[in-house]
Amino acid sequence: MGKALKRNNLADKVRKTKAATEIKNNPFEVKINRKKFDVLGRKTKHDVGLPGVSRSKAINKRKETLLKEYKQKNKSNKFIDRRLGEYDAKMAPEDKILQRFTIERQRVHEKRDVYNLNEEEELTHYGQSLAEMEKFNDTVGSDDESEEKGLLSAELTASHFGGGGGLLRKKISGEDQRDEQDSQKTKSRQELIEELIQKSKQEKRERQVQKEEAQELTEKLDQEWKSVQSLMVKKTPKAEVADKPEDKPKPEEYDMIVRELGFEMKAQPSEKMKTPEELAREEKEKLQKLEADRLRRMMGDEGGDNVQSQVHMSADDLNDGFVLDNHDKKTLSYQDGKWNIAEETEDDKEEQEESGEEEGSEAEEADEEEDEEEEEEEDQEEGSSEDEEGHSDLESEQESENEDKHEDEASSSNQQKSLSREELKAQQEAAKAELPYTFTAPESYKDLKDLLNGHTPDNQRLIVARTQKCNHPSLAAGNKLKLQKLVGFLMEYMGELAARSPPELSTIDKLIPELYSLCQMFPEAACQSMQSILRDAAYSMDEVIEVKGHAAFPTVDMLVYLKVAALLFPTSDFRHPVTTPALLYISQTLTKCPVRSLQDLSSGLVLCCLAVEYVSFSKRFLPELINFLSGTLQLAVQDKASTGFMVVPPFKRSGKHSDLLVLSNSQSCRSWSKKNLPLSATQQLELKRDLDRDHY
């Protein structure tokens, strides 16, 4: 066998590469492995170790293996980067970008040029090539100038821009050049310029003549064309046109849908959503307005502030608010041969006293205003005296007619007042009997009882609802605490209603919706009050069991509390601070309370119904419920040994109450009919005959 190759470890490589001076200077980099004894012929490899290097190597190895596994734990999806060259370490970043760009351009070119047959693309604008337009060959001329107006002749250019002398001369060969030289010697510069001007005017005149001639020819051709056109067009008679039906093109389906959409009703803008604070504020203002209206009707004020006395106003009245006349004159009318003068009521006297106090403060201002008005009236009277003389007869007739109308209206109003006195009294009584619209939150349980006593169940519900609206937490700072107290007061009041004989269950039924709304608003307060009720009931049962060994079934008020808890709080939760203790209380009652009468049996069956309601959603199993129902069936069997069923406490196989449900007469079932038992049957029963007992 050949000798095994020696593998160099990473620590050995690092140890060899490091200088001896560095190791000596930092002794913490080196760990010396000491031997207890030397062995001859054994070569040592790891006399000196490098813990820092080995530790960094182990950490990197964990990052590459364990860390990646930990990050991918409980993850089924993976993000794979499929970009070109992403995992190729040999490619430079510039090469990656260049190849990606090339592939992208090829993909776009393939899509765009599928149906393009031209080898080269040519960019155009309105049908003209952009390459040709960029040469700027076209000269931009003015629209006002004609085609020939922009052209400058050589003579005009030479005269204006030549600078004189030899530039004004034309290059003419032969004799013409000599003649022109002779004529130019005699002509001055001014004469030459005048000749040029005359030539330009003559050319302009000729162009105008040519334009007019062309226009006349065009009009002449148009007239001749009209005469020729009538011969070319063949007119069909009207009879033939009427016989041939017009073939109108049928509208397309898309056009019909577009027209129908135009006639559809558009969505109307709706009002913005209001916050709970705004809704509560509006409810309170509405109730305050209704309460003010009720108080006004109770005091006998028919019109209130909205109804104003009808005062005759002329057409010249400016209605500027500075009228100082009080229209409180009493009108005289006759009824049944006697004077009918309206009597002053106490309210009118109080209003007069208040108005007298206000008039004292306003008297000084009124005097100053009267002085200013008198000065203005004197100036106006001087100017209008002449106009008044001409129309005095007409004004006198109008005044007489107006006075007659006022007298008729006054007499009719007095008759209406006299006829409406009985209606006013009836209205006052109805307003007094009406329920107020605003209530203050009760500070104690006694205040709540005083507020609700003497009212029907519907009115009690209205009182609680209006109290809640008038004392919403968003309206004032202390309203939240008041409504939290109201939750406890309502629960205590419901217990008192249930404890009465007979229990007022209809009132409780009306109050439960208001209690539910308060519970939704303040769940912690409702939870604490219900928890205190259940805690007190459980403690009292435990105390009675410790003393007597058994306890009685709960009363009607406790049964009502258990029912209310199921209505206010969720029963399907695995663990709830209210419903879980309530369910434990029901189970403890069914286990610890023995059945000694028909009332106890009725209470136990009510608790069974409540237990079924508690577990209807969660589908839980209650052994106490099954035990109580089986024990109830045992009470109806006379021979309990034949059943082969073991009785579990609180039921007994034999005893005083073991045959509680055994019929005294087997024939009583023939006259039995099903009836609904009231909840008060759990407390009081009046069964005088055995037949009534068997029927029960």
TrEMBL record:
UniProt KW Transmembrane helix keyword: no
Basic and acidic residues bias: start-end ranges: 172-225, 237-286
The organism's place on the tree of life at top rank: Eukaryota
Subcellular location: Nucleus, Nucleolus
InterPro entries attached to this UniProt entry: Nop14 (IPR007276)
Acidic residues compositional bias, start-end: 343-402
Chief localization: nucleus
Region (Disordered): 138-286, 295-314, 330-438
Keyword tags: Nucleus, Ribosome biogenesis, rRNA processing
Family: Belongs to the NOP14 family.
Stated role: Involved in nucleolar processing of pre-18S ribosomal RNA. Has a role in the nuclear export of 40S pre-ribosomal subunit to the cytoplasm.
PANTHER family tied to this protein: NOP14, NUCLEOLAR PROTEIN 14
Name this protein carries in UniProt: Nucleolar protein 14
